[in-house]
What we know:
10 helices; four-stranded parallel sheet; about 300 residues
Amino acid sequence: xxxxxxxxxVTVAPLGHAGEPDLPEREGSLDExxxxxxxxxxxxxxxxxxxxxxxxxxxxxxxVRAAETGAQLWSLHAEPEEGVVGTLRRIDAxxxxxxxxxxxxxxxxxxxxxxxxxxxxxxxxxxGPVSWAAVGGSLATLRAYQVLGVRAVNLPRFDGFAREAxxxxxxxxxxVDLSGADPESVRRTLALTxxxxxxxxxxxxxxxxxxxxxxxxxxxxxxxxxxxxxxATADTLDRLRAVAGPHGxxxxxxxxxxxxxxxxxxxxxxRDWPAPDLAALARANAIRVLRDTEFxxxxxxxxxxxxxDGHA
Length: 312
């Protein structure tokens, strides 16, 4: 296998105290498209929901993606009848895909590994979300997915088992993905979870303002697909930023990888989005959710270890 660190590093610019990358002012020499490309070169997009290729054809590898992508959450959604076995097959296939593309992809289980992948010129591949049906009402299955590296599980409805599952996901460091959940399920989950949530492929039109405000208070992120209608996508992001806050917005995926994300970010610059909010949209918000979820689980483990030692 090729040396995974042989590429010229692509260093992700750190955010300062105000979270602002080094970006030319609007009235400078660069136009909005160039400024968008400059920002995305420093803050490559974390995609919340990436569909794996249906057939792993060596001639079509690596999978097509937007040039501005830095990390991807790869969907492990299986058909209901496939259940756990179908999900395990997808995990195996994703690992095989990453192994087949060592110059382009690197499997990441933590935010530190995500950053290292990008700095080595690779796209970080994260496992998840897993479909709710594939959990099968079993906390043991949930724990097994976490051991295999799954980072997110979709929870579309809130019931008795969901209450147990949310607590267990918080303990394990697995992100709760509320994509497709009805507003009441979102409210009930946000009232219970101690970690921020994601909506990896959100339809914000289905969520009233009070739910979006609760999402913002939770520190969660609503990740929006970028459609061919950039104005409509920008309108949706404007609403989310106004209601949930600039820390509550993210990118799900783009329907047109060839065009990429620069045109959308140029449109948002035209609408006077400040650079810190654009950096948060592209990358920082999603990473914060993943990092905070990791931290909560790590803290819980340390507390249990201290408690165990204290009673030894």
